[in-house]
Design a protein that fits this description.
The chain contains 5 helices and 8 strands. The chain has 177 residues and is of the alpha+beta class.
């Protein structure tokens, strides 16, 4: 998923967009402390700081399999798996604000939720494209892959002659897309 994030979400601090490994530690800490407390910092692949003052206490964090976000402190944080998203759109909010609209399917129910990007409306197009692409990816489930061990195992197979150069390059490329 990091490949998809890097393809569609720029590291653009002026827009409040931060992609690992360049997420400022204070912003990451504030996001986790405020609305993503069940996440480990190592899970966060990207962060959107939706605040005007740059605290990142409102906004969104992207992980390999889900998005966690909060529009403001009076609203409960929301967690949505990419595989639950069935449609993505944008809408004008009150006072000409911009909202990213996610249609989410859980079980037999489909509902709509909104991510407020009014403080930095230019990010809506990046996030929309990312969600449109990520919802088409297969769900990775709850298990986390240890990419370092997978890479080491592939390279060991290559060293012993069980894996050709082209296959190694292809498999390593697939790991990061």
């Amino acid at each position: 998923m990091i490949g998809l994030i890097r393809q569609y979400i720029p590291h653009a601090p002026k827009l409040g967009l931060f992609v690992t490994p360049s997420i400022p530690p204070k912003k990451l800490h504030n996001a986790i402390d405020d609305y993503a407390s069940h996440m480990d910092p190592s899970e966060v692949l990207a962060l959107f700081d939706a605040t005007l003052i740059g605290s990142a206490r409102d906004g969104m964090v992207l992980a390999a399999d889900r998005v966690v976000f909060q529009n403001h402190n009076l609203e409960a944080p929301q967690e949505i798996r990419y595989s639950e998203i069935v449609e993505v759109g944008t809408r004008r909010g009150p006072f000409r604000g911009t909202r990213l609209v996610l249609h989410v399917n859980r079980g037999h129910a489909t509902f709509e939720t909104e991510l407020n990007v009014s403080a930095k409306p230019e990010v809506a197009r990046y996030l929309r494209k990312f969600f449109e692409e990520s919802m088409l990816r297969p769900d990775t489930g709850d298990a986390m892959t240890d990419w370092v061990r997978v890479t080491d195992a592939l390279e060991a197979l290559h060293q012993e002659g069980s894996l050709s150069d082209p296959d190694l390059r292809r498999l390593l490329g697939d790991l990061y897309t």
